[in-house]
Amino acid sequence: MAADSSCPQCNSVNVIFSKKRRLHVCEDCGHSFDISPLNLA
Ligand SMILES: [Zn+2]
User: Fold this and answer.
1) What is the pLDDT of residue 16?
2) Predicted local distance difference test score (pLDDT) of residue 36
3) Rounded to the nearest whole angstrom, what is the distance from the C-alpha of residue 14 to the centroid of ligand 1?
4) HSE on the CB side for 34, CA within 13 Å?
5) DSSP-assigned beta bridge partners for residue 17
6) CA 4 to centroid of ligand 1, rounded, Å
7) 25 CA distance to ligand 1 centroid (A)?
8) Residue 6 C-alpha to ligand 1 middle, in angstroms?
C-alpha cells in the first residue's frame, strides 16, 4: 500500500505537498493539483 499521492498527469509518485500553496506538486512534471489520491477502481 504505497498509494499516497500520485500525479494525475504523469502518474509520478514524486509528489510533494506545498503547505504554502496548499496543493500537491509533482516534482517530475511540475503539475500541481489539489486532490488526494483518487482510488480509481
Ligand atoms: Zn507529474
Assistant:
1) 93
2) 60
3) 8
4) 4
5) 24
6) 14
7) 8
8) 8
24 contacts 18 by C-beta, under 8 angstroms: yes
| Per-residue pLDDT at 34 | 86
- Cα–Cα dist 19/11, whole Å: 21
All three cell numbers of 21, joined, read: 500553496
pLDDT in tens, 1-41: 445 678 999 999 999 999 998 999 999 999 999 866 555 54
Q: Which domains does the chain have, with CATH numbers?
A: 1-41 (2.20.25)
Cα(21) to ligand 1 centroid in Å equals 17
pTM of the entire predicted model: 0.68
